[in-house]
Write the structure tokens for this entry.
Amino acid sequence: MTSDPDSLSTRSFSRLAALIEDYSGIAMPANKKTLMEGRLRRRARALGLPSLDDYCRALFEGGRLEGEVVHLIDAVTTNKTDFFREQGHFRFLTETALPGLMTAAPRAGLDRPFKVWSAACSIGAEPYSVAMVVNEFSSGIRGFRFSVLGTDISSEVLAIALEAIYPWDMITPFGDAMRRRYALRSRDPNRPCFRIAPVIRSKVQFARLNLMDDHYPLEDDWDVIFCRNILIYFERPVQFRVVERLVSHLRPGGYLFLGHSEGVAGFSLPLRPVAHSIFQKL
Ligand SMILES: C[S@@+](CC[C@H](N)C(=O)[O-])C[C@H]1O[C@@H](n2cnc3c(N)ncnc32)[C@H](O)[C@@H]1O
């Protein structure tokens, strides 16, 4: 045990790290100890526990594990995201992926809805960005239908995504046209924020899904799956299992978008690279 209430003993750290990795896939090597301590102080205080080791004991010996695990994962995950993050992906989506899928039978968007899944969507900037660019793309195409699903392990970020209200400084990547059409500015000068317009909100649904689950309770005919900036937190065998499951939910010819620093090199999967961190299912 450690006498510093703001530090975790080696044993407490290992127990929490094992739990986090097992539950969420997020690797917690020893060099993340300080980060974990910083993030868990708020949780320990919220529960009225005097030290981080007491927090750990409350989880493993005090019966609080089940109720607290969601908060624990929320506290240690990185939810950083932006609208239109990694711009090239959105260009590829509307300039290459969508036109291609619209000409394959049955035609995406026309004979059936065009379906995009944003796995690990954080506060919703990614699925809403997808919905905005697809809505722009399809505005002149009669009868075009599409839907976007955003999923995440964290119920806290999903609550924000559902509300679709964002601080004003997140508007920067919107161009003028997108801003005018899809961002409703708050009239409250004390709360500089904007809300995503109903025409876009109506296209996007949210659900909680842990990528570590053996089975994803979703259809297997997605046209496009975004799973960006989460694999980097997983060890390679976990990355493989997640990507393998995601690919099984893509229709042949569909696309998998990973984060710019993520890839599938060395994974034997029915995927061919088509652009930077974008893969098409064979
Ligand atoms: C850095 S954000 C990435 C958000 C978005 N994809 C982007 O690129 O902007 C990573 C998200 O992954 C979520 N996450 C972490 N572990 C997860 C898991 N096992 N299953 C699903 N989501 C997870 C976190 O809650 C967080 O919201």
Observations:
- DSSP finds ten helices and ten strands in the chain.
